[in-house]
Design brief:
Blueprint (H helix, E strand, L loop, with lengths): L1 E8 L2 E7 L6 E5 L2 E6 L8 H12 L4 E5 L5 H8 L3 E6 L2 H10 L7 E4 L2 H7 L4 E6 L15 H10 E13 L6 H11 L4 E5 L6 E7 L24 E3 L8
Parallel strand pairs: 5-6, 5-8, 6-7, 8-9
Antiparallel strand pairs: 1-2, 2-3, 3-4, 9-11, 10-11, 10-12
Length: 242
């Protein structure tokens, strides 16, 4: 691994690292992994491809992403001709995403707290992706409340989708189900996309009509298909709330 650049920011230390084995570039903040992309700026993380497919199959055209890091999802969605707005409290992330991860110049980048942006936005989005983590790799409490999901709902178009990325330690970790319950209390119809049996995995909390979606769909790169094996969709577990 080769350190390309290190940034001391108000929100922690960001390191950009290139793999000597395959040339991929990774984004770490305070030692926590956040993004990895190949030389074309395409993510090598399976969950990012799942999010892209959900958005593509929903025919979403105007997408809001809260949380930037390497900006790989925004880069991939822009290639699908989506209009993409990225909101992040740390402006350094935007510069890194453009310099090292091929984030297109026409992706709209806004420096702001995500909740404040939702509260004041007059725009409507076909999809809102929430991918925010604190320095300990947990989701800030203010982003997992019923009130937060109501704010998301207010900026969604009538058939809009919400997708939230949650890190799940193992099958005994209930956080995705607990957060999903808060989204349900806000009135959202929730489905989880998950990889049971995997440790430290990305679980996706998704609101909206997903039952007719096919994932994998065949549109994914051939090299990511092995990582999509074991993916299931399920409803939140009621036992997580008792």
């Amino acid at each position: 691994m080769a350190l390309l650049e290190k940034f001391e920011t108000d929100f922690g230390v960001i390191q950009v690292i290139r793999s000597k084995r395959d040339g991929t570039v990774s984004y770490y903040q305070n030692g926590c992994f956040h993004s990895q992309a190949n030389g074309q700026g395409t993510s090598v993380c399976a969950y990012v491809h799942v999010i892209q497919e959900i958005i593509r199959q929903a025919h979403a055209r105007h997408v809001l992403i809260i949380g930037c890091a390497g900006g790989t999802l925004a880069t991939m969605l822009r290639r699908l001709h989506c209009r993409v707005t990225v909101v992040d409290i740390n402006p350094v992330a935007f510069a890194i995403a453009r310099r090292y991860f091929r984030l297109p110049q026409d992706v709209r980048c806004i420096r702001r707290d995500g909740i404040a942006y939702l509260r004041n936005s007059r725009r409507k989005y076909d999809a809102v992706v929430v991918d925010v983590f604190s320095s300990d790799n947990g989701i800030p409490q203010s982003f997992v409340t019923e009130s937060f999901f109501r704010k998301v709902g207010r900026v969604l178009s009538p058939a809009g989708l919400m997708i939230m990325n949650v890190i799940t330690a193992d099958d005994n970790d209930r956080r995705a189900d607990i957060i999903a319950r808060q989204a349900q209390l806000s009135g959202m119809d929730i489905t989880l996309f998950d990889w049971p049996g995997e440790k430290d995995r990305n679980s996706l909390i998704v609101s909206g009509m997903t039952q007719h979606m096919h994932i994998p769909s065949g549109h994914e790169p051939a090299w990511i298909k092995a990582d999509l094996k074991g993916l299931i969709r399920r409803k939140p577990k009621k036992r997580a709330f008792g």
